[in-house]
Every structure is written in C-alpha cells, then in structure tokens.
Amino acid sequence: MSEKAQTEHGQLVGVEKLRSSCDPASLGFATTAELEPLDGLIGQDRAMEAIRLAAGMRASDFNLFVQGPPGMGRHDSVTTYLREHAATLAEPDDWAYVNNFDAPHKPCALRLPPGVARKLALEMQDVVDDLAIDIAALFESDDYQAASRVINEEFGEQQEHTMAAFAEKAKSEDVAMMRTPMGIMLTAIKDGEVVKTDRFDALPEDERKTIEEKINRLQVELSEILRNAPKLDRERRRRIEALNAGMVGEVVSSRLREARDAFADIEVVQAYLATVEEDMIGNAEMFLAVTQQQPDGPFPESVHKAHSNPAFQRYMVNVMVTREGDAPRGAPLETEDLPTLDRLAGRIEHVSQMGALMTDFTMIKPGALHRANGGYLILDARRLLSEPMAWPTLKQCLQSESIPITSLGERLSLISTTSLEPDPIPMNVRVVLIGDRMLYAMLITLDPDFGELFKLQADFEESIARSDDTQALFARVIGTRAARNGLRPVSAGGVARLMDEAVRRAEDASKLSLHLGALADLLREADHYAGEGARDIVIAEDVEHAVQQADRRASRIKDRMREMVRRKTLLIDTSGEAVGQVNGLSVIGLGGYLFGRPARITARTRMGSGKLIDIEREVELGGPLHSKGVLILSGYLSSTYALDVPFSLQASLVFEQSYGGVDGDSASAAELFALISSLSGVPIHQGFGVTGSVNQNGQIQAIGGVNEKIEGFFETCLDQGLTGDQGVMIPAANVDHLMLRQDVVEAVRDGQFRVIAISTIDEGLGVLTGRDPGARGPDGGFPPDTVNGLAEARLRGFAEQRLKFSQSAKPTGQGG
C-alpha cells in the first residue's frame, strides 16, 4: 500500500507541528539571576478579582470558595494577598471570659480594646496576690483583734448576765440551777441543801406539787433563755462579719481603686471590677483561710502565688483573644490545618476531681474562629467536611454571627456531664474555603445554605495563552521560585525546557500550564542533578534528566504492559491487514502519571434485527460515556447505509483482552471503522493506531490525552520494529494539542512513523483501507467498489435475506 494512498484522504501532520518547543535565544537572558522577581501568580486575574472582592466586602455572607486542582498556588496566593490586606485593617478587640458571680455556669464574655485583656488578667493576679497579704495582715492586726474582742465580750457578758439573773430568781424561789453533762437542770433546795429524789418522795403531796409547779415554770423561762442564745450568737457573727466587711472593704476598695484607675476609660472593666469588689468583701474570710494554708518555710514569697490557688480562680480573667508582643499589626489571618469542631469553635476542658469531671470558666479554650475574629480564616474544604459536626458548626456561626462553644459530646448527646454555658462571642470573620471544582459543585447542589453563605468563588485557571509576554512572565516566576527556595539560577535553556513541559502538561501547544507546584518539584529535582554535576546553574540537560527520571520512577506498570505486548501475551498487530479489526488507543492514569496503550478492537456483523451489541456494556465493564459512543455508531450506520430498507444488522463490538472498566468515547471512531470493515469485507491496515470520537454525522471530534496515546502506540511499534508504514490517526482538532516526545518527533522526521489528522469517517476509511471510501452519486447510491458501496450492499443483502426468511417461516393454512 503506497503512502499516497494512505494519506490522500487525511492530512499528514508536519514535523513542525508535532512539538512546539521554546527557543532559548528568544527569552533574552542567560540565567534567571538576571530577571526581576515576580510576586504573585500569572494568568489568575479572574480568581484574584474574586479574592480582592471577598477581602474588601463588609457583608458577612460574602465568604469565598477558592476552587481549582492542587498545585495551582491557591493557598499561597490567597494567604499572601489576605496577609497584605489584613495589615491595612484596624486591630480587632480582645475577648476574655470572666466569672459570673450570680450564675457561675454562665461565664460572661468581655469585649475589650486591643491589648487590654492580658493587662487585665495580670492586674487581677496582682490584686489577688496583694489582697492575700493585706487581708491576712489586717486580721492579725491589734485593731482588728481588739474590735473583734469587744464584740465577743459584749455578747458573752449579755448571755452571762441573763443566766445570772435567772439563777438569782431561781434561788429566791428555793430552786438551784445545776450544770450536768446532760445540760442545765433545775432542782429544789430545802434548808440550804439540794432535795434528792428519795427525800423529795418523802415530802407531803401538797409540798411536792408546789415544788413541781415552780420548777416547771422556771424550766419554761430557762428554755426561753436558751432559745435566745443562738440568736445572740448569730447577731455576734453578723457584727463580726460587719466588722470584717468594713475593715476588709477599705483594703479591697483601696486596691481595686488602683485597678480601676488603670482601666479608667473602659466601662466594661469598671462594671466587672465592681462585681469583683462586692464578692471579695463578702468572702473576705476566704483570703484568711487560704493564707493560713500556706506552708511554712524559708520562702515567705510563696504567699504571693495566691492567684494560683483554686479558691481564687473565681477572680481570674481567661484571655481568649489578644494581640501580644511582636504579633503582626492589623486584622488577624488564621489557617487551621485540622479543622475539628474543638479546634474550630473552641472547647471546654474538664479535670477529674474525686472521680467527677469538673470545669470552670478558666478552662474555656479558644478556637480558630476566635483567633480569626475581625479578620480572615482559611480552611481546607475537604478536611473541614470530613470532621464530625465541623461543617454544621461553621455554618451556624456564620448564620448567627456568633461563636457558641459546645463540645462534640454535647452535640451528639453522648455525655451528660454538667458543663458551662459561656456567652457566645459575636463573630466577624471572612471564611475562605479551598477545594476542588467537584467539591464546590456538590456543595452548591446539595447544601442549600452553602450558596447563601459563600457567595463568591475564585476559580483558578489551569493554563494561560502562550505568547512572548507570558513566556517572559513565566521565566520570572521560575527565577523567583528558584531564588526563594534556595536553588541555583536556571539557564535560558533550562527555562525553555521547563516551558516545554508546561506546554505538554497544558495539553495545548498554544498554552502554558499553571500547575506551578508540579513544575516547582521538577525544578528542585533538576537542581539536585545540577549539584551532582558540580554546576552553578541548572541547564536544559538537568531538566530533561529530571523529566526522564520522573517518568522512569512511575512507569513500572507501563513497562510491564509493553513487555506483555512484546511477548504476545497482549495481542497487538502493527503490520499486515485484517477485516473488522483496528488498534484503538487509550490512556491509563495512575495518580498523576498518564501513559497510553493500544487495545485491539474487533467487530463482527451478521443479519439481524438492527441490534448493536456492546460487549463491554453487557458485562458491565463499559462506562456511560463509552455506551453513549456505541449508541451513536448505531445511529450513524442506520442513517448512512441502506436508507430505503430495514436496518437488518446484528453486530458485536469488544475491546479484546480488556479486563478492567472502559469509559469515554475516544474509541468510538475506531469502533466504527471496525464495524464498516466487517460489513464491507475491506481489511484495515494494522500499522495504524486510531483515536477520536465521532458524531452521528460522521465528523471526527477532539479527544484528550492525544500525546500519551500517540507515544503509547509508537512504543508498541518500536518494540515490534518500525517499518515506515506505521502511524497514528488523530482528529484534526487535536493537531494544536500536540507536544510529543523528542524521540517520536525524530522518528517522524526520519520517515519511520507518521501522524495523520482526519476530520471525517470517510477520510479515516481512506487512510486505513487504502481504498476510496465512496460518496453517493446522482443516482443516490455509492459506487459499488468503494468501501461505503460494499458496506451498503451487504446491509441490503441482510435486509433481503431477512425478508425471505420471514416469508418462508410463515405457517401455511390448512383446509377442513
């Protein structure tokens, strides 16, 4: 078969279109050390506009979802811009939790000016430490001891006077008051002696009754006196407490007056200190009790640590958010890599005491939302959604514009431990989620709240148009990354080779890939090889070596498949002819590594009822896109051939030796060629690999992975021996996507391999069969000796045979 016959219906792609390499001389520099650094990304104007809008919008529901594949620089660009923008904003207020003396289980949230929360916390520690000393000294002072002694003596004398008066009265009535272990007893006296029981019983009855009535009457009076004793003691205690409050109040008020002066302009602090003063005065004995518990020793300064005593935690300040030291000025920018519920919205910790879990307001811990309050919070969307209750909690906080603190156990009703109910802290946070496009589509479709809360999206471009300007910018990006990562400068040749790899990754000769993460990894590996070669710059050979080594590390499966083809375990012909058989091309992806492999596609046809059997679909190995492509073939055949007779075909299609799933429609053109070959009986040249999808009009449509598919078939031909008649047939629309390996380009240049572009099925038939496909003439029929004419004649024959068979199969009527 001549080359002219094979290519007269297709376009032989020239060598210059197979690989659009960058010329190092066109870059205008020797190494990247000569270039100005370039901050930020290139080609992401659309995404950056959305980021700038999200940063500047005041509305709380204009949160941002940044979408795009990994390796696009999404995190770095968002973080860099927001950090710069946050530095221009006002610092947010501090937040702290303090004790609610009226309801300790409901701690109060204090909103304080920036930097005040820590000062207030330290001041309260000093207040407690100072008062622990001052109040203890006050209770030990002579003035206090004298005043308390006067009160005690006063009430003691009053009680003794009452009892003495009663004793005199009883004595005047010949009744004695005796103290016994059982209490106070009253007994009769006669002749100056206590009347004992036996003597009392010997007295006349009238006298006994008189004595009993007298004792009972006095007993009532004594009981009344004794009942008044606790009242007097309570009064004494009240006087003591009043004394304590009066004297302690002066000390507390004096010390807290200093604290008030330190925060004179802050009303919320003034109100808080007023409640503290009231509680301290009412619990003055607590200072004395805690002071007395201090261990004796040579270090009297240990008393200054009173604020660490659990009894004084009620007066501490739990700082939730503040700016300290050398923290960046402006609004905060937070990133939470593990967005669990507790790390996102805060938590309440517990300690075990005597087998019970205890907590107080000092055990409230802040989350990322607290730290980001007044600024920005960046989260990984997939990680956020994978954490239990984290996504619902974030939505609740955004909707209520506040941060309630609840534990996961409480949310799921797993524990019944008594906990706290802290005041929710008002929230003003712009949340930025970073994820892929599929995740965004799922959220916008399935979660009705998502679109209301995240009204902005920043969609990162995956490629940029290739031009002199963009290549210059790309070179500066490479130079900037090399410098910032401490790598060697890159030569113009090295930059050009990296650009070639960017073009290949973009799968378009007119574009550059913006997957800068993968290119940065390649650059670091090339820098390593430059170091091994003792070079001061990274050259093109280093980048090429890095590309080859990366391919080698990932190509074990590909090499095993090539070996199976060489050993005829997988049957692939690259020479000769066969009817109803063609080499389809597919792409296999393993992680980020793609490689092409040929697959034998066969078709068998016979008379039938118009059914096209897709064996892959029948055994549930074919995906929906592949099944769609096969159904399109049926539409093409029925609308192209034998238009005036029933479509009387039964055909079967299969990917031979395919043991995994098949999806996509890029093999539909190859399948149609196999069907037409089987129908017409015209053999197909097996030296060609075919890729491309087809529509019902017979037009060949573009597919993906064209470079990998061509290279995969080239390797198969190389293993079986290049003959010069081999090649790959691709859609004409894919010519602009070609960025083939250099060895494939060299083989085409040497005439050992070909790449042919086609636009229609008829063009492909001419290339594959070497015969005229045939077009309908004025009479409405195909020329009889053409491929289409033979296929149509076969279908007409099927229709006629089917008609004859149906007529012969009709039952004959029988007479009576």
UniProtKB/TrEMBL annotation:
Tell whether Iron-sulfur is among the UniProt keywords. no
Gene3D superfamilies according to UniProt: 1.10.8.60, 3.30.230.10, P-loop containing nucleotide triphosphate hydrolases (3.40.50.300)
Record domain Lon proteolytic: where: 576-771
- What's an example Gene Ontology biological process for this entry? protein catabolic process
- Transmembrane stretches, by residue range? none
Task: Work out whether the entry's keyword set contains Protease.
Answer: yes
Q: Tell me what reaction this enzyme catalyses.
A: Hydrolysis of proteins in presence of ATP
Listed name of the protein: endopeptidase La
Q: Which family does it belong to?
A: Belongs to the peptidase S16 family.
**SUPFAM superfamilies noted in UniProt:** P-loop containing nucleoside triphosphate hydrolases, Ribosomal protein S5 domain 2-like
* Active site, renumbered: S666, K709
Tell me the enzyme class. Answer: hydrolase
Q: Which UniProt keywords are given for this protein, alphabetically ordered?
A: ATP-binding, Coiled coil, Hydrolase, Nucleotide-binding, Protease, Serine protease
Q: Which classification does the entry list for the species?
A: Bacteria, Pseudomonadati, Pseudomonadota, Alphaproteobacteria, Rhodobacterales
Query: Where do the coiled-coil regions begin and end?
Result: 208-235, 540-567
Which Pfam family is one of those matched by this entry?
Answer: LonB_AAA-LID
EC annotation?
3.4.21.53
Name one molecular function that GO assigns to this entry.
ATP binding
Lineage top rank: taxon: Bacteria
